[in-house]
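Field reference: sequence -> structure
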Amino acid sequence: MVNLASPEHAVALFIVQIAVLLLAGRLMGELAQRVGQPPVMGQLVAGILLGPSLLGTLAPQVYRAIFPATPEQKAMVDGMSQFGVLLLLLLSGMETDLRLLQRIRRTAFFSSACGMLFPFAAGFFVAQLLPESVLPDPNRRLLTALFVATCLAVSSVKIVAMIILDSGFQRRNLGQLILATAVVDDTVGWITVGALAGVASRGSFDLRAAGTTVIGTLAFLALVFTVGRRGVARAIRWTNDNTRSDFAVMTLILVFMCGMALLTEAIGVHTSLGAFVGGILVGQSPLLSRRLEEQLRGPIVALFAPVFFTLAGRSIDLRILGDTRLLALAGGFVAVACAGKLLGGFLGGRLGGLTSREAAALAFGMNARGSTEVVVATIGLTVGILSQPIFTLIVIVAITTTITTPPILKWLLAGIPARGDERERLEREAAEANQFVPHIERILVVTEPRCGDLAVRLAGLLAGAHQVTTTILPLDADGGARPPAAGRRALETVTRTVERAARRAATEKEPAPDPPEVIVATPTADDPAEAVLAESAKGYDMIFVGMARMPAPETEQGTGCGPVAERIVKEFAGATAIAVGETPEPLRIMVAVTGTDYSRRAAEVAVAIARGAGTSVTVLHVARPDPEMGLTRLEREVPTTARAVVRDIEALARREGVAFRSVVRTHRLHEQAILRELAAGRHNLLVLGVNVRPGDTLFLGETAAEILRRASCALLLVKS
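Structure field:
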């Protein structure tokens, strides 16, 4: 029989351990979900079953064979587990909405302050009453008491983050608040631990070292949330545009996460803060953030999370409760730790304006200590501040709060409905999930001489209203790059338009953030269409291209579009917006809707442009009459389906805060009704959704062809 514990089979044993942890964690996690509990609970139970409490007692030889006590073997699994924790915090950071946290900063302050001060005071008081027989050094009782108080005051960001994700509360105000409070508690706790550990190691308090940690943490946070955000966004964009290997951006983000974790470790704070803040910065990047989140979520949920939480459960040894003295002390520690945290968290939540149930959920969320408290206690044991009995008591507190928190917190969260502004935000996000414009992350604007001004203006309005990164590709008349001055002028125009649109789109509830980035790209091909298509391969969701008015096509199957626009429309897989005509000022927008998907997306573009321009939009629907309807009733009788189409766009305009006017007409010829309404309403911009029809020649439909021939106003043809 092969001895897997021997050094030459260390890798094989590592694989066995991972397989056992994964299988047990997945099975128990599935069972927990089936009984209404989060998978974390099942994974912790799986760890207990695999630990010394059960497997180690019933089958000690099997237990030692799978989980030998050799430091090298333990370090391999622990290393993978801790890297999984960093990934979990990275994903949690990507889900964090900084604008939301700014709005709830008052509640976060009170909850963090009370949630740490109460358990800290309670822990310090209990530690002062401990008998000298369990103290490592009776002469340093004060230092031990301070460290015990710190252990009982910290919260586990890791546990809280997983519970919030499992409960679907990552986008709820309360979920963001609980996670933010846990991060603050963790940060303050690690700073305190660093200072106390330094005192124990040096025998005296090193004010300089403690001050350096505090100043370094503040400087780190100030730097990453100012310069760091734009720097990360630019690095992601550059990697996406200039690398050809698969998943290059994901590699960049993982390396960045590691660097942030090492940086916080270097300044004396735990690596979890760096990973979480790194996730926030990645989530603020407008490029590919949703795709990256989905790519990261798979391996985290499937591999790293089950390994970590099952391994955390395996460290629990319930056999120590056989000692009645330790059992009594453990009960006292658990009671004091929970009472202090729950009372402090509840009071802080109420002072911050939460309801009683919300404050209770916040308090129980803060009560989860998890591996954070275990790691802190291990540091105290290593430097001699804690004795083995006190260490055991603290670990029991961590175990108890970790096991009890998920079911209680999930039950509390399930009974908290969204209200007021939060409900409106969630409804808006649910509606946007099925929309087109909110998922546009990157726009390419193609400018050519004499026909690019309108495209530049309209693209800037949409980008400013929805915070979309914009790239300008200036082409000369024959293809290739235009003179640098032309690119600079287009850049200045788009930048001004984006900034103004962002200010107009801002509301009292959602003030204007920093405007999105606008850059100029250099064509990489002499042929204009080739240059555009080459640039579009870098990951754009929409292209705005200007087009001068062309002579009417000789055949019905023509469009009148220029060769560049025609090729882009035919070959670009994303959305294309063809801007035709001069730039009108001020904009008076009309959008024609038919109930089709591409018409609906064009309406979204029109509403977004109207929001950025601070103007209204007229929604026109032309219904074809029933053949049996009399001619005298054509203009008066409107089908119910037509009203439904218009109401859908009206709801969209209301959500975006755009004034609208609805017009429903019944006419046999759509183009005639559209042209008539354009003239009657003095509209100077028509937005029309189009669809590419089959054939060798680009054809966008009879209505679009007729509008191109006869309309005198500016046009925006949206092909999605």
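Note: The CA atoms of residues 396 and 655 lie 50 Å apart.
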